[in-house]
Write a structure and sequence with these properties.
This protein is of the alpha/beta class. Helices cover 21% and strands 23% of the residues. The strands form 2 sheets. Strands 4-3-2-1-10-11 form a 6-stranded mixed beta sheet, with helices on one face. The protein has a 5-stranded mixed beta sheet with strand order 5-6-7-9-8, with helices on one face.
Length: 235
């Protein structure tokens, strides 16, 4: 009998294109190679969609069309780097849908994500299950340990994005099962104007990603301090 293929999954944190961190793409490409990954899951919020938010917009940010053009260019770079991937739909990804709903535009008049961003090799969905591990963005899931708290509710191992300042793995073990909750951190640039609302927050985003090999999780922190490999000025 032939041996079944290992699932070696790279979980990429929120990007918020065009506001992703310098060097993050190279970092996750290096991690993909290091662990010999054969699957990729983007954890959501591929794009920021700042211009169509219901929240206060920063006056120096581009308008909706210009932001789309920038986000499209950035998204295409990611698509070229990872042409086959699963994408968890995030709350920022659906901002345009929420804006359309607010003025009574039915969904049938809107294009799907793969068409809008021209990513035919990406599968966009709300949740994926690989090796009994659930992958979902994490909309409305927060707290100090978001993945762990929601893993307990779902009774399945869980990988989340969404919570930029959370990264790590926590386990829950009973007599029959071992579950984990993984928060993958993110790949955003906190200095971008889209995140100006958090300028004075003491806690900053954790720049990291996750790898899950046959259901076993690993966290990789991106070394971004001065003198480290992925320091901004190296890119």
């Amino acid at each position: 009998m032939s041996k079944s293929k290992e699932n070696r999954v790279l979980a990429i944190g929120d990007l918020h294109c065009p506001c992703e961190r310098k060097g993050y793409m190279q970092f996750v490409k290096d991690i993909y190679k290091k662990y010999k990954c054969n699957q990729t899951v983007f954890m959501g919020d591929i794009t920021d969609n700042h211009a169509v938010s219901f929240f206060t917009k920063h006056p120096d940010m581009p308008g909706a069309n210009d932001e789309y053009e920038l986000a499209y260019q950035h998204t295409q770079r990611w698509y070229r780097a990872f042409p086959k991937a699963k994408v968890c739909i995030g709350n920022h990804d659906v901002r345009i849908i929420k804006a359309a709903e607010s003025v009574g535009i039915p969904a049938k008049f809107l294009r799907d994500f793969a068409e809008v961003w021209q990513t035919p090799g990406w599968t966009w969905d709300w949740e994926f299950l690989i090796d009994d591990v659930a992958y979902t963005h994490g909309t409305q899931m927060s707290g100090i340990h978001p993945a762990y708290n929601n893993m307990r509710k779902m009774a399945t191992s869980l990988v989340l994005g969404h919570n930029h300042a959370r990264s790590g793995i926590k386990y829950l073990v009973n007599a029959r099962h071992r579950f984990f909750g993984m928060d993958v951190g993110c790949g955003v640039d906190d200095s971008a104007l889209a995140f100006a609302y958090g300028k004075h927050c003491r806690i900053r985003s954790v720049i990291s990603c996750g790898v899950i090999i046959n259901g076993i999780p690993h966290i990789e922190i991106m070394p971004i301090q001065k003198g480290e490999k992925y320091y901004d000025k190296n890119f």
